[in-house]
Design brief:
- Helices cover 59% and strands 11% of the residues.
- By secondary structure, it is of the alpha/beta class.
- The chain is globular, with a radius of gyration of 23 Å.
Length: 439
């Protein structure tokens, strides 16, 4: 019985996600007519940083220093540094001028969200643009967001895919997600959530909302719920060049935090979307977007349940099992078609190899995010952890642990003659082995 449940969890959750992606790629949009342009005014760029490497901050500062004489912008970097030596290194190379500021906070209250709120209070622009330290918008995009009448979001495009298999795979996954959830959703008239980096918001609206809450990790998802409650629909304005994690450890850190933060927002503020006076299709899709970490962790739960089932049950293929396996095959085929459509627009990647690598990482992620989603549902608080910008590899034990667990499960499946858990165990086992040996 556990074997069938585990297969059903994996097959149905993957089918739901692939159907959602196929709907975004091939489905029809809803009618939308809106104007987002306003008069151009002073644009305040606010970037929170914490113990970032000197070269990263220097590159960021110099990128915006060349724009200050072109049009009305100010760049405010709010620094939470616990390492005085590192901060002094930043001071030596930072390109200060009348429009580029580096503000150091000594209390660190509220973490990233507190830094953004303090930066907003320090700024004086009509529009506030939130940026990470590894984001480099063009002058064209800056001029667009300066004329934003409410909230505008710039689609991400990875600056440098990198030269390693893992960095290029992460870049591919980032670009694919940005294409799905921002470009396609915008074209179809659906609600797009703000991004932590690349979101512009008018000061009056930011102050009306009260700034960012200090008790949420995923500030962009929370802001989306507040905007929908106020019937404010963000607009897409182009794309910005962003950095992507360069190592598997950094990417897992990012995805775990996103899964926890998004689930926490869904649990605590999903009611704001339910109560919003907007079209039902917008409300349903916006809620579903927040549910994605939960759906992914459902897949991971299915894989985990295959472990005890492989030791305790003997399961042969029946009609129900074949139907579920067929649904699993359909979900994989649908996702492949969506990725293939994206690949026609994307450049610089090496299909089909990058598809296999991203599939392996995605399979591992379903298990990786499971404990974080559970923690968010149970209300267990987890501190905000910044995605490392360094290219130095950190030891990541979770793929090795997953490999060992599912090696044992695969072996038990063969001994117990359990065809279902044999297939389910082979998926994360293959993903973990590939990750350890090739990425």
């Amino acid at each position: 019985m556990i074997s069938i449940v585990s297969l059903a969890l994996v097959a149905l959750s993957m089918l739901i996600v692939s159907l959602y992606h196929a709907m975004l790629v091939y489905g029809k949009g809803i009618s939308t007519h809106s104007v987002y342009r306003s008069n151009e005014g002073l644009l305040s760029l606010i970037t929170p940083i914490k113990n970032e490497p000197v070269d990263v901050v220097e590159r960021y500062g110099r990128h915006f220093a060349m724009y200050v004489n072109t049009f009305a912008i100010e760049c405010i970097v709010v620094a939470d540094y616990t390492d005085d030596t590192l901060f002094n290194g930043v001071l030596k190379v930072f390109p200060f001028n009348d429009s580029v500021f580096l503000v150091r906070r000594f209390n660190g209250v509220g973490g990233r969200n507190g830094a953004i709120n303090d930066g907003a209070r320090f700024s004086s622009g009509d529009t506030i643009l939130l940026l990470d330290v590894d984001a480099y918008p063009s002058e064209e995009v800056l001029r667009e967001v300066a004329m934003c009448s409410s909230v505008c979001v710039a689609k991400w495009s990875v600056c440098e895919p990198g030269y390693t298999r893992i960095s290029r795979t992460i870049a591919f996954m980032t670009d694919y997600g940005s294409w799905l959830y921002y470009k396609l959703k915008s074209l179809k008239g659906l609600f797009i959530y703000p991004l932590g980096s690349g979101t512009a918001i008018r000061r009056r609206l930011f102050e009306e909302i009260g700034g960012f809450r200090l008790d949420v990790i995923q500030d962009d998802m929370w802001l989306g719920t507040q905007l929908m409650r106020r019937r404010v629909k963000p607009h897409l304005v182009g794309e910005i060049c962003v950095g992507a994690p360069q190592t598997l450890s950094a990417f897992l850190t990012q995805q775990r935090r996103w899964a926890y933060g998004t689930t926490d927002v869904m649990k605590r503020f999903g009611k704001d979307i339910l109560n919003a006076s907007v079209e039902p299709v917008l409300k349903f899709e916006a809620l579903f977007y927040l549910l994605q970490p939960l759906i992914a962790s459902t897949t991971g739960l299915g894989f985990i349940l295959a472990i005890p089932a492989s030791f305790s049950e003997s399961q042969h293929m029946g009609l129900l099992e074949l139907v579920l396996l067929s649904l699993l095959g359909i979900s994989l085929a649908l996702e492949f078609l969506s990725i293939k459509k994206f690949a026609r627009e994307a450049r610089g990647y090496d299909p089909p190899y990058v598809y296999g690598r991203s599939s392996a990482i995605s399979t591992l992620l379903t298990i990786e995010v499971l404990p974080y989603v559970v923690a968010a549902i149970m209300g267990i608080r987890i501190p905000y952890k910044i995605t490392p910008k360094s290219r130095e590899k950190a030891r990541e034990l979770s793929p090795l642990i997953i490999m060992l667990l599912f090696t044992a499960s695969l072996t038990a499946s063969i001994i117990r003659n359990n065809s279902i858990t044999l297939i389910l165990s082979a998926m994360p086992l293959t993903a973990a082995l590939y990750t350890l040996l090739r990425l």
